[in-house]
Design brief:
By secondary structure, the chain is of the alpha/beta class. It has three domains: 27-183, Rossmann fold; 204-432, ANL, N-terminal domain (Rossmann fold), CATH 3.40.50.12780; 435-540, 2-Layer Sandwich (GMP Synthetase, Chain A, domain 3), CATH 3.30.300. The strands form six sheets. Strands 2-1-11-10-12-13-14-15-16 form a nine-stranded mixed sheet, with helices on both faces. A hairpin with a 2-residue loop joins strand 1 (42-46) and strand 2 (49-52). Helix 3 packs antiparallel against helix 4 (53-69), helix 6 packs across helix 7 and helix 9 crosses helix 10 (239-252). The longest helix has 17 residues, at 53-69. 49% of the residues are buried.
Length: 547
């Protein structure tokens, strides 16, 4: 059988030299191509900083030259440790342009956690905001990796902290243009660390091929256009905001407005001030926007496209959003970091037809439901959600055993349980680890949460299982009341009992002022399990607390 190598490339020129250069399409190329198409169009807005695509691309070139001058070479790892800012995407694309692997880090982590990431990734450099420099230094004191470069982005201080180089000074240095490097489609350009619900976070290794195929799926499935203007308020260290939205905007030539953090009032002001058309938020932030005292008085007339994801959107919350924002089209994006990160999407036209669905597999993804033996499950049967796609990661960095387990059989195993409806729409039931086993029955926490969210005085809810000596696990719910309302735990239990089987009804309702969350808006059930670990034992001995 003849191959391309046989009849067109006998000397391997397509994998090296001028042919490879002519065929190149990698992450680092995207800003330059948008700058050619839209040189004078605003690319990035961050407070008083407004960069056109030409200016943004020029900053990337300066940062790339500075990285080379500091001794960083292709394959080295660069930690990014900062709240959202224009410098963040500059460093993401500058690293990719040099074949350096960017490692975004959760800015809520402590020194010991960061020290682990430094050593596991074998990072050679770090760019951090000044307010986090002390945390970074404490982490470096515990780490064993040798750090060759420390650059501080100035948010609060007039000068860089001791031992750090200021970002503005560093990037403005007159470094010569570095020699060009050939970055292949499958060369790693990013390590995204998972949130660490297990003993240690896993480093998801992504290539340009993973990311660019995923961007194409986002654009097609999400109705994205070059004329869009989008707010980016969720953390850029997280793949959802960085790769579903910010990078797709840069790819397309759309305008991005960056906010430091997802503060509802700042988001609303930015929509009005910058005439925003697109907004992504997880359900917890959409709920906070609805409850903002300025929601009803903010001019949202330019907002046309709304996206939700990162965790399940309660149907009642979505119904409220659609009622209060009737002219806005909503999309549900579902996926995992290992899918770079989009896997399925629910279109605006299907929101009311298939409430609670994660939608259909996107353009470049094939999705299945498999049983415990990894055999395809029939329509309607719950099993594990698995995917096959060029989006998929290269594997887990320095962890071949977990890579082999997650990608067994040639499919990525998501760890989520779900089923397909006859229409082909995917419904996500729960995380495998969040399925509650009580009294010999399985309870999907999401099903109970949907009932709680339908309660007229419940603002937020989280359902989880805790150990129980007789039932294996006991169903517990922590709920937050709507502003100005009060909740009676006994009344909430009666409300659930009228709508759920007895074994699904929470045995304990805890009324809380707020739920613990990650910076990306996900509810931290592992923290709730820790806080209420004794609830099952207390219930068994008649000491059940309800608030």
């Amino acid at each position: 059988m003849l191959t391309y190598q046989d009849y067109a490339d006998p000397d391997g020129a397509a994998t090296r030299g001028p042919v490879a250069s002519a065929r190149r399409q990698t992450l680092g190329d995207l800003p330059r191509r948008s700058a050619v198409r839209y040189p004078d169009k605003e690319a990035i807005i961050d407070g008083p900083t407004r960069l056109t695509f030409a200016q943004f691309d020029a900053q990337i070139d300066l940062a790339a030259a500075a990285l080379h001058a500091a001794g960083l070479r292709q394959g080295d790892r660069l930690l990014l440790f900062s709240h959202n800012c224009w410098q963040f995407p500059v460093m993401i694309f500058a690293a990719a342009r040099r074949g350096i692997i960017a490692v975004p880090v959760n800015y809520m982590l402590g020194p010991a956690e960061i020290a682990y990431l430094i050593d596991h990734s074998e990072a050679a450099a770090i760019v951090a905001e000044d307010a986090l420099a002390a945390t970074a230094d404490a982490a470096l004191a515990q780490a064993t990796a040798a750090m060759r470069l420390k650059v501080a982005i100035s948010f609060e201080l007039d000068a860089a902290p001791d031992g750090w180089t200021g970002f503005d000074e560093w990037i403005a240095s007159d470094h010569p243009a570095p020699p060009e490097v050939v970055v292949g489609d499958e060369d790693p350009v990013r390590i995204m660390y998972t949130s660490g619900t297990e003993s240690r976070p896993k480093g998801v290794l992504l290539s340009s091929r993973s990311l660019l195929w995923q961007y194409t799926s986002c654009i097609v499935s999400g109705g994205m256009e070059a004329r869009d203007r989008e707010v980016h308020a969720l953390p850029l260290y997280h793949c959802a905001q960085l790769d579903n939205f910010l990078s797709t905007d840069i790819f397309l030539g759309a305008t991005s407005v960056i906010l430091r953090r997802p503060d509802p009032e700042q988001i609303l002001r930015a929509i009005e001030r910058e005439r925003i058309s697109n907004l992504f938020c997880p359900p917890t932030i959409w709920t906070a926007l609805l409850q903002s005292p300025t929601f009803g008085t903010t001019d949202l007339s330019t907002l046309r496209k709304a996206y939700y994801g990162a965790s399940a959107m309660p149907v009642e919350v979505l119904n409220t959003l659609q009622a209060r924002l009737p002219d806005i089209r909503f999309w549900n994006f579902y996926g995992q970091t290992e899918m770079a990160s989009l896997a399925t999407a629910l279109d605006p036209e299907d929101q009311r037809l298939y409430p609670g669905s994660a939608g259909l597999p996107v353009l470049n993804v094939e999705t299945r439901i498999v049983d415990a033996d990894d055999r395809p499950a029939p329509v309607g049967q719950v099993g594990e959600i698995v995917h096959r796609s060029p989006h998929a990661a290269l594997g887990y960095y320095r962890d071949p055993a977990k890579t082999a387990e997650a990608f067994r059989g040639g499919w990525f195993h998501s760890g989520d349980l779900g089923y397909f409806a006859p229409s082909g729409h995917l419904y996500v039931v729960d995380r495998i680890k969040d399925m509650i086993k009580t009294g010999g029955e399985n309870v999907a926490s999401r099903e109970v949460e949907e009932v709680l969210y339908s309660h007229p005085r419940v603002s937020e809810a989280a359902v989880f299982g805790v150990d129980h000596p007789d039932w294996i696990e006991m169903v517990v719910a922590v709920v937050v009341a709507r502003p100005g309302d009060e909740l009676d735990p006994r009344e909430v239990i009666r409300y659930c009992r009228a709508r759920l089987a007895g074994y699904k009804t929470p045995k304990q309702i805890v009324i809380a002022d707020e739920l613990p969350k990650t910076a990306s808006g996900k509810i931290l059930k592992r923290e709730l399990r820790r806080l209420y670990a004794d609830a099952g034992q207390n219930a068994a001995h008649g000491r059940l607390a309800t608030s």
